[in-house]
Design brief:
The protein is mostly helical.
């Protein structure tokens, strides 16, 4: 089947539902991103404190030290605009029925966009990293 005719109002409802799911996932990913970044900063702060304390007798030793790069996960992307564009088009449509191609059906109904796999991997990877951070470490006030 290459095309399918669907009820425009039903499709609009489905795309709105998919947007709500996306926004929940995005907000969870942002929260996990923040947690992981703060944990990485705390680790870096401890390492720098040790380096500075070791160099205390001769502060010029810090001039040649490399502090390296902070390792942070990929920043979560928000694809809200892609959903909103489809929602706006459907809301403005005067047609009671909409014809979708196979690819459009996959995106709008099945919520399987071209970016979805990498987005899901980024979000789940970040969740795994955030979950691996000790709750006691975070709850102790070391990271807010």
């Amino acid at each position: 089947m290459q095309e399918v005719k669907v009820n425009t109002k039903v499709l609009l409802s489905k795309v709105r539902e998919n947007l709500e799911t996306h926004m929940k996932d995005y907000h969870d990913a942002k929260k996990n991103y923040r947690k992981v970044c703060l944990w990485e900063l705390k680790k870096r702060e401890k390492a720098l404190t040790v380096m500075i304390e070791k160099a205390a007798p001769d502060p010029t030793r810090l001039d040649d030290m490399s502090f390296g790069h902070l390792r942070t996960p990929s920043i979560p992307q928000n694809y809200k605009e892609e959903y909103e564009q489809v929602i706006e088009m459907l809301a403005m449509s005067i047609n009671q029925e909409t014809v979708l191609t196979h690819a459009e059906f996959k995106q709008y109904v099945m919520d399987n966009w071209p970016w979805k796999n990498s987005y899901s991997m980024t979000c789940s990877g970040m969740a795994i990293q955030a979950d691996s951070i000790s709750a006691n470490y975070i709850d102790s006030g070391s990271i807010g």
